[in-house]
Amino acid sequence: MSKGVAITGMGIISAIGNNVQENYDSLISGKAGISKISHIETIHADEIMVGEIKIPNTEFEEQLGLSKNSYSRSPILGIIAAKEALAQAGISDINDFKTGLISSTTVGGMDKSEQYFHEYFESNNNWQHINGLHAGDSTKKIADAIGLKESFMTTISTACSSAANAIMLGARMIKSGKLERVVVGGTDALSKFTINGFKTLMILSDTYNTPFDENRKGLNLGEAGAFLVLESESIIEREKREVLAYVKGFGNANDAFHQTASSDNGDGAVLAMEKALKVAGLKPDEIDYINAHGTATPNNDLSEGRALQRVFGKGKVPEFSSTKAYTGHTLAVAGGVEAIYSVLALQNNCIYPNLNFKTPMKEFDLLPQKEVKEKELNHVLSNSFGFGGNCSTLIISKEA
Amino acid sequence: MNKSVYINSIGSVSVQKTFDNSEFLNEITIYNDTVASVLNPDYKAYIPPAQARRMAKGIKMSTVSSQTALREAGLENVDAIIVGTGLGCIGDSVKFVRDIIDNDEQFLTPTRFIQSSHNTVSGQIALGIGCKGYNFTYVHAAVSFESSLIDAKMQLENDEAKNILVGGVDEMVKYHVDTHRLIGHIKSEPADSTKLLTSNTKGSVMGEGSHFFVLSNEKQESTYAELVGVETYNSISQENIPNKIESFLEEHHSAVDDLDLVILGNNGDVDFDGYYEGLSTGLFKDRPQAYYKHLSSEFDTASGFAFWLSAKILKMQTIPEVVKLNEIEVSNPLKILIYNQYRGENHSLMLLRKC
């Protein structure tokens, strides 16, 4: 269990860019992707803001050579991200090493299921989407698009920590020698289902989300596809691959407090961060930057803030920011999006600003990073928390 | 050195009477339908009635099967909870979508949305026993349960955990049945479960169930069997299946001739049972064979029933007549291979042995 897990490729499409470079450019220029919703008809359109990718499915279908309305949006976003990741890693034959695919999603093909919910019984025009309600169906479509055969493939759904958990499983399988290479990440499209679900929980902001601000009003939902290629050290040596960064630590724990809310003191979050530090063999003061979960809901930011203070010590929390003000909360994919942002931070020795922050929270003196900051970074910690008390932490590092 | 992994306890709620661990398929329920619903245990003995009313069926079934498994293992808590489910609490998801559409996105309440989250069962079990450990949910169609086993086995082998509660659960709801019958995945005419394999019709008989197990790297008195290996494949061509099986067995220092029983996932779908029939008359023609989907019916985590069946056979040292697929007898079954696939995809192999 001492083998290094190298990240050799990344791919992403989000509200702030259609590829890795565009995402990075938006991050350092402070360009958020939050807007009014345009692709989904909803009566809440005037009361919510979202992190929406403005390209319609029809354009993606043309780009990917898919027949019209054959795939729902989640697999489409996933395919785009997975292909970019494999191209960056320089992989032309996915089956040349023992490779796996671990994806994650919360909604899968829900955008189509809700659209044709009653229509399925009236005509067979859109029956191609019936099986899309299975979360695993989006993963299968990604596997088909990248040509993966006779291989390990699975899907994780632990709400908003899903992609972080996909990365964690992938890293563990490489460390244990079960796989030599694994494509990990997630994909989630916007849907009426999640818009209305979070609306009933009363945690959607009607304006730009403001993580860790005293006057935060809730989250903006987002959509994204994000994948990373993880490879074993033996592949790196044999293929002379360029390594972008390493998955150095990971930890998952359960808050066991409430189905949808985090505990006041962030017990689960503390456990997840402590486990990740232990796996990485690092002390808290060795972490140079924290990409926080920071959804901008009253509950999350308080609980996470307290957890950060418990793990790092009062007054000793390193620079941190949430990038949800850029992308919105991309649900299952958030951990994948933010793992990629963590790698980019390491590569560029740069910390992203926590946009929209004005007023410190009254419960503690934590101040997120407000401006772009250049700093030598070696270890970045990224948090992702989800329903069901699910808490995950990844540590991404320059060295194995 | 990897540690061995043991199945220390079992718990099952299925369309057969399996919830009582002191019995072993003593009475069989025969179905002549296109669907089969769980035989409900006495939920009141496990869940306060006020709570049970709001609970999704999948959570109720899993409360019973997970508590049964924990009790039999003599545990109040575990180091990790890992659940596989093809569809999660699909009943609540469907109701929430229906409410959104039929009420034009108004007058909605959060309960159904909350229970729609795929990891509701694993989260609820953690909440119930106060387990702050690792908590994962796999949602990959017919290998959801196997993904959980792979994860658990890796942690136990590496001694990252001592006891892990692993399960597979899927509930059946009308909307899902109706839509999947439209696309031919579910039979359009009833099949007699005693003659399932000769139904000669397309699609399967859809059902539901919840199977939980405590896996551990320490053997104890309650131990059923050792989990030797588990592997999944997103695709395999029909011709290449025997090769894959042989190399899987070889990896685990076994061979076809060592197998005392092969459990196959035939579900009576005339389009896809060929995958199994090819093995029955080919690679496994001299091995004792069994099947189970005439008892469990088909659902994403139906292989949890096969895992339950294998554990039970290895502990009781008896193979119930009702599961036998051929005439070859075995007096003391020591090693069992389970092979499953669904509609030609998501193939899985699980190897268990008596210990």
Labels describing this entry:
heterodimer; A: 400 residues; alpha/beta; Peroxisomal Thiolase, Chain A, domain 1; ten-stranded mixed sheet; 12 helices; 15 strands; B: 355 residues; two-stranded antiparallel sheet; 21% strand
What is the general shape of chain A?
globular
Spatial strand arrangement across the major sheet of chain B:
4-3-5-7-1-8-12-11-9-10
**CATH top level of the largest domain in chain B?**
Alpha Beta
Helix count of chain A equals 12
**Biggest sheet details of chain A:** 10 strands, mixed
- Number of strand segments of chain A: 15
Termini separation of chain B comes to 19 Å
Coarse shape of chain B:
globular
Summarize the helices and strands and which ones pair or pack.
The complex is a heterodimer of chains A (400) and B (355).
Chain A (H helix, E strand, L loop, with lengths): L4 E9 L6 H9 L5 E2 L14 E2 L5 H8 L8 H17 L9 E6 L5 H6 L19 H12 L5 E5 L5 H14 L5 E8 L3 H9 L20 E2 L1 E9 H7 L5 E10 L12 H14 L8 E3 L6 H15 L7 E2 L2 H4 L6 H15 L1 E2 L21 E2 L4 E8 L3 E8 L3
Helix pairs in contact in A: 3-5, 6-12, 9-10
Chain B lengths: L5 E8 L18 E2 L15 H6 L2 H17 L6 E5 L5 H13 L7 H7 L3 H10 L4 E5 L5 H14 L5 E8 L3 H9 L8 E2 L16 E8 L8 E11 L5 H11 L9 E4 L9 H8 L7 E3 L1 H4 L6 H14 L18 E8 L2 E9 L2
Parallel strand pairs in B: 3-4, 3-5, 9-10, 9-11
Antiparallel strand pairs in B: 1-7, 1-8, 2-6, 5-7, 8-12, 11-12
Helix pairs in contact in B: 2-5, 3-4
